Amino acid sequence: MQNRVREEINAAVTTRDVTSEHLDTLPLTRAVFYEAMRLYPPAPKWCAIASLTPNSQESH
Fold first, then answer.
1. Taking burial as the number of CB atoms within 10 A of a residue's CB, which of 12, 24, 26, 42 is the most buried?
2. Phi, psi (deg, nearest 5) at residue 50
């Protein structure tokens, strides 16, 4: 799958940088990205903040 995505990007992008203008020409890459986000969603921001805040009721 990685090789297919790389081939799609190389065929669609002729410059060094991939921009938002290229997204319409990358359907496989977009599908792989959305599937990865579905399977492995990013952690909610509040979890990261909550884990950094010490619990005042715990004894250390």
1. 26
2. -65, -35
Residue 18 in 3-state DSSP? Answer: coil
For range 6-16, the mean pLDDT: 88
Any domain includes 59: no
Residue 49: its pLDDT value, please?
56
- Tell me the C-alpha distance between 46 and 25, whole Å: 35
**Number of CB atoms found within 10 A of residue 18's CB:** 13
The verdict on residue 14 lying in a domain is: yes
Residue 56 lies in a domain: no
Q: What is the pLDDT of residues 17-47, one digit of tens each?
A: 888 888 889 999 999 999 999 998 887 665 5
